[in-house]
């Protein structure tokens, strides 16, 4: 399965370019296989993206803006839903992918950093506050 990210390489909007860069950068950093498909220079890509974004996900004007993310033909979402999935540590589920072997996706990597700090404080957990200060 290949993730398809529809982008506009000649977008004049800085906000759209930043969103596209964030999605592509995240996928590259996590070694997730994807294809970047330009809707600015390829009418077929633009038509396919517009036809395959579900109606309830299209903006009021009916024209979805990039980046739009698909897993093959299955719609995953736009930048806002990508960002939410990333923040909630459910990005592999969002993309319709199995997490890499030996992990639970991004959840493991982020949780381990939080737990290290908690482990250091466990020795003092059973002692009264007076004993900790000595």
TrEMBL record:
Renumbered to this chain, region (Disordered) spans: 94-134
GO CC terms in record = cytoplasm; nucleus
Coiled-coil intervals, chain numbering? none
Q: Reply yes or no: does the keyword Acyltransferase apply.
A: no
Q: Which InterPro entries match?
A: Glut_rich_SH3-bd (IPR006993), SH3BGR (IPR051033), Thioredoxin-like_sf (IPR036249)
Pfam families in the record, alphabetically?
SH3BGR (PF04908)
Q: Entry's SUPFAM superfamilies? A: Thioredoxin-like
Key words of the record: SH3-binding
Superkingdom as given in the UniProt entry: Eukaryota
What GO annotations for molecular function exist for this entry? SH3 domain binding
Family statement drawn from the similarity comment of this UniProt entry: Belongs to the SH3BGR family.
- This chain's protein is named SH3 domain binding glutamate rich protein
- Taxonomic lineage per UniProt? Eukaryota, Metazoa, Chordata, Craniata, Vertebrata
């Amino acid at each position: 399965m290949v993730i398809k990210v529809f982008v506009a390489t000649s977008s004049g909007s800085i906000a759209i370019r930043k969103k596209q860069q964030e999605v592509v950068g995240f996928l590259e950093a996590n070694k997730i296989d994807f294809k970047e498909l330009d809707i600015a220079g390829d009418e077929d890509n633009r038509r396919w993206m517009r036809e395959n974004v579900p109606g309830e996900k299209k903006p009021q004007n009916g024209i979805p803006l990039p980046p739009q993310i698909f897993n093959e033909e299955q719609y995953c979402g736009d930048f806002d839903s990508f960002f939410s999935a990333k923040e909630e540590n459910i990005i592999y589920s969002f993309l319709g992918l199995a997490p890499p072997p030996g992990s639970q996706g991004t959840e493991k990597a982020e949780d381990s950093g939080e737990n290290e700090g908690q482990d250091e404080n466990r020795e003092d957990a059973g002692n009264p506050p007076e004993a900790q200060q000595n």
